[in-house]
Every structure is written in C-alpha cells, then in structure tokens.
Amino acid sequence: METLVSATANLLVFTFGACIGSFLNVVVYRIPAGLSLVHPPSRCPQCFHKLGKTENVPILGWLWLGGRCRWCKTPISSRYPLVETATGIYFLFVFWKFGYSLETIGYWAFVSWLFALSLIDFDTMTLPGSLTKSGLVLGLVFQGIIGWQIAQTQGIAQKLMFGISGAVLGIWLLEIIAVVGSIILQQQAMGDADGKLMATIGMWLGWKYVLLSSLLACALGSIVGGGAMLLGLLNKKQPMPFGPFLALGGVIALFWGQEIISTYVNLFFRF
C-alpha cells in the first residue's frame, strides 16, 4: 500500500511538473517577443490553428501529433516535450529532497524561474528583467514565509537577512567575475542581467550557496567554453550566454550543496 501511495505521488508530481513545463514553453517563446502569456491561446505558429485539448497535453500531445501540426503538417520542435519532461524530472528531484513541505512548493517555483531564464538566455542572449525581478521578489516572500513557519516574527527577520545578504553577495560576486573576465578577454565578459540572476539565486539560497553557485558556474562555463573553442565551435570574441551556467550552478547547489561543501571542508581542512 505504501509503495502504491509513493508511486501515485511521484506520478502526480511528474505530471504537475510537465504541465508547468508546458507553460514555461509559452513563457520562453512569448516574453522575449513581447507577447501576452494568456492571449491568444496556444496555436500553431505557422497556420495559427488553435490547439485542441488533446493536442495541448504535455509530452503526449506532441507524440500523438507525431511532432507535426495536424492541420498544416509543419514540424513541431522536439524541445517542447523535452522541456516538459525535464521540468517534471526537476519537480521530482525537489519533491524527493524536501518532501511534503512549503520548501517543495517554493523550490518548484525557483527551478521553474531558473529553467525559463536559462532557455531565454540561450535563445536570445538576454535575461528579461520581468523574470529576474519577479524571481527576486518571490524569493524574498519565500524567505519570509519559511521564517514565519520557523519562529514567527523573529524567524522572518532572520530569513529575510539570510536572503538579502545572499542577494547582495550574488551581485558583488558577478561584478568581480565580470571585471576579471573583461581583463582576461579584453572585452565585456557579461551583461548586467547576469548580476540580477545571481542576486535572485542568492535570495533563494543564501550567501553560502550563492558563493558555491558562482564557483560552479565559472567552472562549467570555462569547461564548456574552452571545449567549444578547441572544437572550433566558438571563437574568443564570440559571446556565450552565461545565464544557463549560473542557473545550473544554482540547481546543483540546491540539491547537493551541503554535500559538496562538506566534502571540500573534509578534504582541505581536516587538519
């Protein structure tokens, strides 16, 4: 019976995450284009046919259509079901780590914001202020709610300072990284929006994990960027979106931050 309940809960969480992923596809497409998120309803971008209920079902809708519009046969990008699947998996990871708690709901929102911003930055080399600012405010609200749950008024003050200090450190870290990167590359290393994203991560995760996130992002960005240049896919002067690496660093810190920090301390400070 317990196994059945657990399997059902996991299925419901994955399904809910896939539905959110479907909405994230809308966000990623429409916000950079300056379009409304609610109107018009989902439709084929080629023939503008409004998608029916079965066509809008996450993952399965794309499979039922065979990856093509039913009416004009225009190919539908496989990224749509991939984003829905990935979001469902993200939601499962959060659920497995935090269980039935307010943290689970909050971090579902957090990873959704990071995922949407990563995809937009990958597509357009921009991080919309509407998402970075709303993510920052939502993180502040999240810290307040968790603080109230812990110790009411005193807990709120502590958690708000926890988040604000993380946001401030995030901005400072990105400023330092940007200056150092500009000196090394002899051109602007990153945009102002990257600092806002780092502040958002700091607001949600606090100073310790935002420090880890920035280190992970730099390491991952260096490995991927260096590998791309070695393969001739990228040249030194060609810009590369840094937002996805910041977001990935934040996700890794959320799920495995304590383990990484503990391992580091045990390796280098045992004596």
Distance between the termini: 49 Å
Biggest sheet details: none
Q: What does the oligomeric state look like here? A: single chain
Q: What low-confidence regions span 5 or more consecutive residues with pLDDT below 50?
A: none
Number of strands: 0
Q: Which structural class best describes the helix and strand composition?
A: mainly alpha
Order of helices and strands: HHHHHHH
Shape: globular
- Summed up, the domain count is 2
Radius of gyration: 20 Å
Give an overview in words:
This protein is mainly alpha-helical. The protein has 2 domains: 1-100, no CATH class; 102-271, no CATH class. The protein is built from 7 helices and no strands. The termini are far apart. The model has no long low-confidence stretch (mean pLDDT 87).
Draw up the topology in text.
Elements lengths: L1 H32 L26 H6 L13 H20 L3 H23 L4 H57 L6 H39 L12 H26 L3
Features:
globular; mainly alpha; 271 residues
TL;DR of this structure?
This protein is mainly α and 271 residues long.
